[in-house]
Specification:
CATH class of the largest domain: Alpha Beta
Radius of gyration: 24 Å
Bound molecules: adenosine-5'-triphosphate
Keywords: ATP-binding, Nucleotide-binding, Transport
GO molecular function, one term: ATP binding
Strand content: 25-35%
Organism: Deinococcus irradiatisoli
Oligomer: single chain
CATH superfamily of the largest domain: P-loop containing nucleotide triphosphate hydrolases
Distance between the termini: 37 Å
InterPro entries: AAA+_ATPase (IPR003593), ABC_transporter-like_ATP-bd (IPR003439), ABC_transporter-like_CS (IPR017871), P-loop_NTPase (IPR027417)
Largest sheet: 6 strands, mixed
CATH topology of the largest domain: Rossmann fold
Structural class: alpha/beta
Pfam families: ABC_tran
Number of strands: 13
CATH architecture of the largest domain: 3-Layer(aba) Sandwich
Length: about 325
Amino acid sequence: MTLAIDTQQLRKEYGRRAVVKNLDLQVGEGEVFGFLGPNGAGKSTTVKMLLGLVRPTSGRLKVLGGSPDDLAVRARLGFLPEQFRFQTWMTGDEFLRFHGQLAGLSAAELRTRIPAALKRVGLGGRGHEALGGYSKGMLQRAGLAGAILARPRLVFLDEPTSALDPIGRVEVREIIQDLRREGVTVFLNSHLLSEVEQVSDRVAFVKAGEVVRAGSMAELLAGALPVEVKVDRLTPELLSALERLGKLERRGEQQVSVTVSGEEVIPAIASAVHAAGAQLYALMPQRQDLEDLFLQLVGDSGDGGSAVPNGDLKQGAA
Ligand SMILES: Nc1ncnc2c1ncn2[C@@H]1O[C@H](COP(=O)(O)OP(=O)(O)OP(=O)(O)O)[C@@H](O)[C@H]1O
């Protein structure tokens, strides 16, 4: 796998405090990679080091096979910052022209790419308006247009949908999927875990400056699967049959939770119920999602007082 991002023992200290510690991160070319962690975990600092905006205290990093200090490498990076405070006196067109010129695009390229980029982010025909009159969601879209204007090979998107409504979020998800189809690597920082779950090929959880877990969605969410089983009566014979399939937790006269290794075991639960002559009322796998995993891995850290991600928790998950 060719790596778009490769860090080894990357570290950043502010004063005597290490905010990123010995970070080893490998992201393959063309991957959509979700970078998750509570407030203050060191995500933005990591992104800034990868962009060459913050100097690491120690360790090594490569982006697109080189250094972000190399202008040829930097020209192939795109960045949507979390705090998008743009030049409000400029129109959308002027803002993109400014960024495009900084990225070295020619006048001819700018003429075709600016309207195309605006259209792609849902701002077609709005380029003549001043950014000062844009809504927060429009500004975020304009920032995204700026990040992809120069056709980067690696794009960092820091909370790309924080200002968007649900329709806008779907649209940005589609743009990320298009970028993946074009072979662009996307490094995604987001608190919206369900969103990360839907678009990322792999994710890493970072806590207090260190990666605590990384892998594909399937790898991370595999393993123990609790299945709630409800029957007319739980006989000793049925309980011992279920015990052979997984760990049991009794819920009452008619219900038991069986934690099995994966969904391929579910049919065996139904067969055991049938063989014991019981009536099956319900068989409910309780799939773990990214949010459960987030709370489990990083639930007791962060410097914002709470590790709970912004507004994306299902009821009662904590
Ligand atoms: N320039 C700086 N000087 C001193 N400390 C800093 C500086 N930048 C960041 N920090 C500290 O480093 C820690 C990590 O910050 P960072 O912004 O990287 O976290 P984050 O994971 O991106 O958080 P959030 O999700 O809240 O954006 C925080 O405790 C922050 O206060």
